[in-house]
Design brief:
Blueprint (H helix, E strand, L loop, with lengths): L29 E8 L3 H12 L4 E4 L15 E2 L6 H9 L1 H24 L7 E9 L2 H16 L4 E4 L10 E10 L2 H14 L3 E3 L4 E7 L2 E6 L2 E10 L11 H4 E13 L8 E3 L6 E6 L5 E6 L10 H16 L1 E15 L5 E3 L7 E5 L5 H16 L16 H19 L8 H8 L6 E4 L6 E5 L5 E5 L10 E3 L4 E3 L6 E2 L5 E3 L15
Parallel strand pairs: 1-2, 1-10, 2-7, 4-12, 10-17
Antiparallel strand pairs: 3-6, 4-6, 5-6, 8-9, 9-10, 11-14, 11-15, 12-13, 13-14, 16-17, 18-19, 19-20, 21-22, 22-23, 23-24
Helix pairs in contact: 1-5, 1-8, 2-3, 2-4, 3-8
Bound molecules: flavin-adenine dinucleotide (FAD) and FE2/S2 (inorganic) cluster (FES).
FE2/S2 (inorganic) cluster (FES) binds next to loops.
């Protein structure tokens, strides 16, 4: 988030351990039994699981291992995914709720086991996670959630106390959960996969997939990797084989980390009513205790994230007694319309598998997905409620329709020229960190001035499917609200599904 660095918001990154030195990019064509595309929790865990089973694995990461959403998450490893179990039970029935609960609870222990087995230095600590309510309505919701969660075998208990500075009306506690440094954990997984013979290439974006008899050709700038199977672990996987672009929507959220005047509570908590905030403690290598405070989400570009970060900083100061905001950052995840992740492939494309739609709970969810994907590649044909080819339920369909309308709006937004074009441009030129979309007779133009004072004008039409991008001043980047692509001020792709940069345009009115 290089566009916003006032001293009161601390450094523009998460406080986690720095990434190790990058591995070299792919240098030329080759083959592999499995190519994993993407080095977040899903990709790194899948690569490790397959390498452990003896598969020849190549992992290709466009930027850095753990540099995507996984490494910018808040690192809570829990089966408590908000008050989800009462909703799952109601919408999908007891068996699906049980599958979700048992798999995610098992993933908490899988992650702890992998940390132990591979000696991953990622500040893993045992915690009890909490949901807390501030109103009687929220308390009633937690009572319902507790009943369902307990019936599913989860370690859930109601209490009247939560690790937050407010008077709560009720809290729901899950015991024997974990929190960790997600960046160090995912980097550790990739190193463990390499220890089993997997080959990892960073700064190697995959540009194209071409199915061929018995496998898939994976195209990169350095040549083709001929793969038996491909796992799309890209957060927003493409090609869209299972309609995931319609069945999930991108949701951003921002965080601050702060030093407090007193001790930071060890256990995490998430509010179910009032301001929806999620908190956890993180202890730096130097032993400094930080509170991490996270918002709920919004479509990329729908919020001025500078305002939200300032609100968070204010809240940290006045509600929690923060003495200094040390860090601020943001990230995006794909939220599934029917609450369930999508894992697997489409009928007829058995060589290409994917996982997405973790709805902000992908550390355990992604671990579950990796397990299912690795089993599938190993020949296990078990159908699960997470099957990517499933049909969404009715409420999911209604959400998809609303999301489709939103995409329609983003396709036509800022296409009609309005008076005052020059004024709009003038406010951007020479003002570092400012950007806006200007409607012109030849289409919308994205104009921004980067942190170094360089003004760029680009086509504002997202190169994925044509929605109009929006300036994210807090991140100093162009975001697309439709499926979550992100572009640098000079148009380069920072996050997919877009793979082509925004093209340069003349500065409007000049
Ligand atoms: C603010 C925030 C906080 C969160 N906190 C938690 C939490 O505490 N606990 C929890 O369980 N979940 C949390 N989540 C959710 C969780 O972080 C995500 O669900 C999970 O990280 C998704 O993992 P992933 O591997 O699918 O994606 P990513 O980690 O984003 O990895 C995808 C990778 O694919 C790469 N890639 C994309 N396209 C290509 C290409 N063409 N070629 C090569 N590589 C490519 C990207 O560069 C990226 O590195 C949080 C989410 C957010 C937004
Ligand atoms: S149109 Fe799909 S990400 Fe922009």
């Amino acid at each position: 988030m290089s566009g916003l660095t006032p001293p009161d918001l601390g450094s523009p990154d998460a406080p986690f351990a720095p990434l190790p030195d990058p591995r070299p990019p792919l240098a030329g064509p080759r083959s592999a039994e499995v190519v994993v595309v993407g080095g977040g929790i899903v990709g790194a865990t899948t690569a490790l699981q397959l390498a452990e089973r003896g598969f020849e694995v190549v992992l290709l990461e466009a930027h850095r291992i753990a540099g995507g959403t996984s490494g910018r998450s808040t690192g809570k490893v829990t089966s408590q995914h908000g008050p989800i179990y009462s909703q799952l039970d109601q919408r999908h029935g007891r068996d699906t709720a049980h599958f979700y609960a048992s798999r995610n609870e098992a993933a908490v222990h899988t992650i702890a086991g992998l940390v132990d087995r591979y000696d991953i230095d990622c500040s893993l600590e045992p915690v009890a996670t909490h949901l807390h309510a501030l109103t009687s309505r929220g308390a009633a919701q937690l009572e319902r959630e507790a009943t369902v969660a307990r019936s599913l075998g989860l370690p859930a208990s109601l209490t009247d106390d939560a690790p937050v500075p407010d008077a709560v009306t009720a809290a729901l506690r899950f015991d024997d959960q974990r929190q960790l440094d997600p960046r160090a954990y995912v980097a550790g997984l990739a190193a463990a996969a390499e220890g089993h013979g997997a080959v990892v290439h960073e700064r190697t974006p995959v540009r194209k997939l071409r199915p061929r008899r018995g496998g898939v050709n994976v195209h990169t700038d350095a040549g083709v990797v001929a793969a038996g199977h491909v796992v799309l672990a890209m957060l927003t996987p493409w090609p869209d084989l299972v309609g995931a672009f319609a069945r999930a929507h991108p949701s951003r959220a921002v965080c601050v980390a702060a030093e407090l005047s007193g001790a930071v509570p060890t256990d995490p908590s998430l509010g179910v009513d009032g301001p929806s905030r999620s908190t956890r403690r993180y202890v730096t290598d130097a032993g400094t205790e930080l509170l991490i405070l996270l918002t709920s989400g919004w479509r990329p570009g729908a919020n001025d994230e500078r305002d939200t970060l300032r609100e968070l900083a204010d809240e940290a100061t006045h509600r929690w007694g923060a003495t200094r905001i040390t860090h601020h950052w943001g990230a995006m995840d794909q939220v599934s319309a029917d609450l369930l992740p999508m894992v697997g492939g489409a009928p007829g494309t058995s060589h290409i598998l994917l996982a997405t739609g973790f709805s902000k709970w992908g550390l355990t969810g992604g671990t579950v997905a990796a397990d299912l994907l690795a089993a599938r590649i190993a020949g296990d044909r078990v159908r699960t409620p997470f099957d990517a080819a499933r049909l969404p339920d009715l409420r999911g369909l209604a959400k998809m329709t609303a999301a489709g309308a939103r995409v329609g709006y983003e396709l036509v937004r800022d296409r009609i020229p309005r008076p005052g074009v020059r004024g709009g441009v003038d406010q951007v030129v020479g003002t570092p960190g400012e950007g806006r979309v200007i409607a012109t007779a030849t289409g919308p133009v994205a104009v921004c001035t980067d942190a170094d004072g360089v003004t760029c004008a680009l086509s504002a039409t997202c190169t994925h499917l044509g929605c109009t991008v929006r300036w994210n001043a807090a991140a100093g980047a162009w975001d697309c609200a439709c499926h979550g692509s992100r572009f640098a001020p000079d148009g380069q792709v920072l996050a997919g599904p877009a793979t082509t940069p925004l093209s340069p345009r003349d500065l409007p009115g000049r």
